[in-house]
Every structure is written in structure tokens, then in C-alpha cells.
């Protein structure tokens, strides 16, 4: 209801302009890179696996892709929501949709969900390699690690033993905040700056894409950029480690 009757109608005109800027010869980067990922993973895993890309809200839909697997006789279905950090609005939404579709099946396969992969060594290595390529080309005054934002209430609702305070509680990653999206973003940054050799005073963690008037997790990316400009910072390199493919939030919101 929120997406179909509130967000989509109000955002459609502006989004249409942004998509026009974003679109490439082959279509949406999200879908183009998603299909490329499907092919690369299929090649890497070999004939014993069947790899398919599915979209949470558009095509190819989760329902249509699961229909492809339904009568194949596989031993296990592995579902990887392509969100590095765990969040109820993204990861859990995908998991719920998969379970909802499969609940109508007569025979249910063993299902394994990968609910986060931000700390997986090859994920960190891949992002670090991209960063090193740009860092070798020029000097940057500052580095930003910009993550997709969430309303503060979502973070507080998922808190373990009221541990989350939306302050320095994310400075250390532990069993108390292992399922906290904000804490996972902070830990992602720690892993990346270690791999890149970036000093603590050289980088800032921030959050983008906020909507409405309700408080979202801070600091906000757009405000941080203005503050850096006010300090005389001339060049910044921005990482967006909560995204695995270019999309509106990276190419337009950050890039433009």
C-alpha cells in the first residue's frame, strides 16, 4: 500500500527524469548488471547449480523465478538477497516474499537464506580493488562511505536489550548489535578502510536517500558534503557499499 499509493505516485514524475538520465543502451544498470552477475555466478558454480536473477518488485519477479525451480527436483534452494547489510525493509522483505510463494507448493525444498554478506572477505576485496583503482589515479582530500539510510525507528525496533542508542553504540561490532543495520554499515567501513589503508581522520560514514520528515539515521550524506566544502575540502571519493550495482541512488543521487 505504501509503495503503490504513496511513494510511487508522488515520486514518479521526478523518478522518470532520473531514470532517463540513468538508462543505458541495454536498459536499467540494475537489471543489466544483475543479469551479468547471474551469468558469472552460473559459470563459477558450474552445471550442478541453476542460477536465476529475480527482482523484489518488478521483472523477472520472485514468483516467476521460483516457478522455474518448482519441479526441478533440486535438493536445496539458496536465496541471496543482494543487500550486503541486513535490514527488515530490504532483506526481510525478500525473504517474506519467497516464503509466501513457496507456502502454496505441495513439495517444499530445503531453503537456505543468506541474510547478509558485508563482512565476506571477497566482498571487501572487490570494493577495495575498485577504490584502489581511483586512489591510484589522483589524491583525494577526504573519503565518504555513504550507505542507504533507514528511519531511526527501524533501528530502535530491532535493538537487542535496548542496546541501540544511535550514537557510539556502533563503534564496536558485537553480539549485541550484530543484526543492527547501522552497526553493520560501520563494520563494513572499518573493514574497507583497513583494506585501503585510510586513516581515521580521512573518512566519514554517512547515510543517503532519506524520505519524509521522520528522523533517519545520521549523518546525512548531502549535509556532510556541504560541511566538507565549508572546510575547504576540494576532492572526495565516495564509496556506496550498501549497493551491489549502479542505480538511481548511486549514479544520480551521489554521482550528480
Any key phrases for this structure?
globular, 45% helix, three-stranded parallel beta sheet, 256 residues, mainly alpha, 10% strand, two-stranded parallel sheet
How would you describe the overall organization of this protein?
The protein has helices spanning 2-22, 29-45, 62-69, 88-102, 121-137, 152-157, 181-196, 221-230, 248-252; strands at 76-79, 110-113, 142-148, 203-208, 236-239. The protein is mostly helical and 256 residues long. The protein has a three-stranded parallel beta sheet, sandwiched between helices. Strands 1-2 form a two-stranded parallel ribbon. Helix 4 links the parallel strand 1 and strand 2. Helix 5 (121-137) crosses helix 7 (181-196). The radius of gyration is 19 Å and the shape is globular.
The span between the termini is 30 Å
Number of helices: 9
Order of adjacent strands in the largest pleated sheet? 4-3-5
Main beta sheet, described?
A: 3 strands, parallel
Taken as a percent bin, the fraction of beta residues is 5-15%
The chain-level mean pLDDT equals 92
How many strands? 5
Amino acid at each position: 500500500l505504501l509503495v503503490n499509493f504513496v511513494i510511487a505516485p508522488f515520486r514518479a514524475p521526478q523518478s522518470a527524469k532520473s531514470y532517463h538520465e540513468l538508462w543505458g543502451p541495454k536498459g536499467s544498470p540494475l537489471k543489466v548488471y544483475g543479469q551479468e552477475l547471474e551469468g558469472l555466478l552460473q559459470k563459477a558454480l558450474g552445471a550442478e547449480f541453476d542460477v536465476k536473477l529475480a527482482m523484489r518488485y518488478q521483472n523477472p519477479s520472485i514468483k516467476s523465478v521460483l516457478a522455474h525451480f518448482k519441479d526441478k527436483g533440486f535438493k536445496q534452494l539458496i536465496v541471496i538477497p543482494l543487500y550486503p547489510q541486513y535490514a527488515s525493509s530490504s532483506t526481510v522483505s525478500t525473504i517474506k516474499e519467497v516464503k509466501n510463494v513457496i507456502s502454496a507448493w505441495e513439495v517444499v525444498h530445503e531453503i537456505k537464506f543468506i541474510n547478509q554478506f558485508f563482512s565476506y572477505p571477497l566482498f571487501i576485496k572487490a570494493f577495495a580493488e575498485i577504490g584502489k583503482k581511483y586512489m591510484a589515479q589522483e589524491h583525494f582530500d577526504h573519503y565518504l562511505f555513504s550507505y542507504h539510510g533507514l528511519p531511526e525507528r527501524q533501528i530502535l525496533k530491532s535493538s537487542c536489550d535496548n542496546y541501540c542508542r544511535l550514537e557510539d553504540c556502533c563503534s564496536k561490532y558485537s553480539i549485541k548489535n550484530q543484526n543492527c543495520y547501522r552497526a553493520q554499515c560501520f563494520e563494513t567501513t572499518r573493514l574497507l578502510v583497513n583494506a585501503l589503508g585510510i586513516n581515521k581522520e580521512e573518512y566519514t560514514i554517512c547515510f543517503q536517500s532519506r524520505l519524509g520528515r521522520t528522523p533517519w539515521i545520521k549523518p546525512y550524506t548531502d549535509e556532510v558534503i556541504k560541511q566538507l566544502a565549508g572546510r575547504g575540502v576540494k576532492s572526495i571519493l565516495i564509496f556506496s557499499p550498501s549497493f551491489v550495482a549502479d542505480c538511481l541512488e548511486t549514479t544520480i543521487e551521489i554521482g550528480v
